[in-house]
Design brief:
This protein is about 20% helix and about 25% strand. By secondary structure, the chain is an alpha+beta fold. The protein folds into 5 domains: about 95-155, Trypsin Inhibitor V, Chain A (2-Layer Sandwich), CATH 3.30.10; about 155-220, Trypsin Inhibitor V, Chain A (2-Layer Sandwich); about 230-280, Trypsin Inhibitor V, Chain A (2-Layer Sandwich), CATH 3.30.10.20; about 290-365, no CATH class; about 370-475, no CATH class. Strands 14-15-16-17-21-20-19-18 form an 8-stranded antiparallel beta sheet, sandwiched between helices. The longest helix has about 30 residues, at about 55-85. It is elongated. The termini are far apart.
Length: about 475
């Protein structure tokens, strides 16, 4: 057994607080195992918990309180600053929103903020006298006593552009707010290409969305009128600053169509010069063609005079309708009347061309010359009336009537006259051809009128037949 004093003495080393072998439980006290050592080793040091570090808890709490106090004071300062700024107690005054109100009302609101007002006008589509904008803009902070410019609407006005070239005129109009243009070239003695007028006229007010028509000068030139109607051609020549003269010519073109012009279209001439228009004759193909008279009624008198007829009587009847008698030595008589079924005509004393003046043509009658009558006219049959119907250009024959078939009303007195009447319809028109043998005389007549002419008569007395009415009134009336 080894002597106790021969043993090497054990070394007791204090535990470092930062050592991995230090006690993990900071709240526990270090204990020396008495079974092992029997006594506390000299020099051993007990582990101390972190909270037990001298002076550490006392130094942290006051520092946190100071930081919190500083933050609260800063927040309160910001709130107070924002509130006082919003209340305009400092930092100037906000320019009020005044767009759309009157100049007077806007000035009152702005001056109420302690700001000065300056007024300027600007062309605008807004109501005249109302505010369009401000400078500075609404909501801007401005120093008390500083000036706010108020822009007030005034009407847009067409500027003076006469005499300018087209490009210059457009520029001036755009500067006035115009956006839309149309160009119209007009005959003028002004310089070719210069502006002679605008529509609306200079000085007139307009909206930016309006179209401004710019009228530009061009030399006086014969317009292109060949193929136009006489009426349209006359209007075009007049618009070109020229005078139209019309000559009617025979042509295969439609009636009243311009077939030529002299000077030729496109020719440059002086203002007020005469342009002769050659127009396809607006006349019936033949004076027998009664249906065509309704297509050329304003030219009937002119046409018949050219055919050798004389205007013997001219007047107007009920409703202003024309009542005109044309007579001739060898072509029979033509009557414009509202009673074409009657062979009697109330002559007037007038000789004015009422048809040319626009009086309506209600119906027409041709009393044939003896030279037009067929050889068998004294004993007429269907071939007789068909021959005369063909001469007048009538088609669509639907009825014939003799004196033996006619229903004569009680107010008419039947005579010994013998007749044959034919009736037909062409669209909205109806026609008749009547051949009458009275004693030793034969006569014949043709009529044409709108079917509506007979709507005003009581056809019940005539077996509800227009043919009966025409024959009975003509022969027995």
């Amino acid at each position: 057994m080894t002597d106790e004093k021969d043993r090497a003495p054990e070394q007791l080393v204090p535990l470092d607080q930062n050592s991995e072998d230090a006690v993990e439980d900071a709240d526990a006290s270090a204990v020396v195992d008495p079974d092992r050592f029997g006594r506390v080793a000299r020099g051993a040091v007990a582990a101390v918990a972190p909270d037990a570090v001298p002076g550490e808890g006392k130094s942290r709490h006051p520092r946190r309180a100071v930081i919190a106090l500083v933050l609260v004071v800063a927040l309160v300062g910001c709130v107070v600053a924002a509130a006082t700024y919003g209340a305009e107690l400092w930092g100037g005054k906000s320019v009020p929103y005044v767009v759309g109100i009157s100049q007077e009302a806007a000035g009152s609101k702005i001056r109420g903020k302690g700001l000065a007002v300056k007024v300027a006008t600007v062309a605008s589509d807004d109501p005249v006298g109302t505010v369009v904008r401000t400078s500075p803009a609404a909501g801007t902070r401005a120093r008390v006593g500083s000036t706010v410019t108020v822009y007030v609407a005034r009407a847009r006005v067409v500027p003076k552009v006469s005499g300018l070239q087209l490009g210059e005129a457009k520029k001036a109009l755009r500067e006035s707010g115009a956006k839309n243009f149309s160009i119209a070239y007009v005959a003028s003695g002004a310089a070719d290409g210069s502006v002679v007028a605008t529509e609306p006229a200079e000085g007139a007010t307009f909206q930016a969305s309006d179209t401004i028509t710019i009228k530009v000068a061009r030399p006086y030139t014969v317009p292109y009128v060949v193929g136009k109607t006489e009426e349209d051609a006359r209007a075009a020549v007049a618009e070109a600053g020229l005078v139209a003269s019309v000559t009617y010519v025979n042509s295969d073109e439609a009636a009243q169509t311009v077939v030529a012009a002299d000077p030729a279209p496109g020719t440059t001439i002086e203002k007020g010069a005469t342009v002769t228009l050659q127009v396809s004759a607006p006349y019936p193909s033949d004076y027998h063609l009664l249906r065509e008279y309704f297509d050329y009624k304003t030219h009937v008198t002119e046409f018949l005079k050219g055919e050798g007829f004389r205007l013997s009587s001219s007047s107007t009847g009920d409703g202003g309708v024309a009542r005109v008698l044309y007579t001739s030595a060898d072509k029979g008589n033509v009557t414009v009347t509202d009673t074409p079924f009657s062979h009697s005509f109330p002559k007037g004393s007038g000789t004015e061309d009422v048809l040319a003046s626009g009086a309506p043509l209600p119906g027409i009658r041709l009393d044939f010359a003896s030279a037009d009558l067929p050889e068998n006219a004294a004993t007429p049959d269907e071939s007789t009336v068909r021959q005369l119907a063909d001469l007048c250009g009538f088609t669509g024959m639907s009825q014939t009537l003799t004196q033996d078939q006619a229903v004569v009303p009680s107010n008419l007195r039947k005579s010994s006259a013998r007749f044959l009447c034919a009736y037909g319809e062409m669209g909205d028109y109806c026609w008749s051809v009547l051949v009458v043998r009275e004693a030793d005389r034969t006569r014949a007549a043709a009529t044409c009128a709108p079917k509506s002419l007979y709507d005003a008569y009581d056809l019940g007395k005539f077996n509800n037949s227009v043919c009966d009415m025409i024959a009975c009134v003509d022969v027995y009336g």
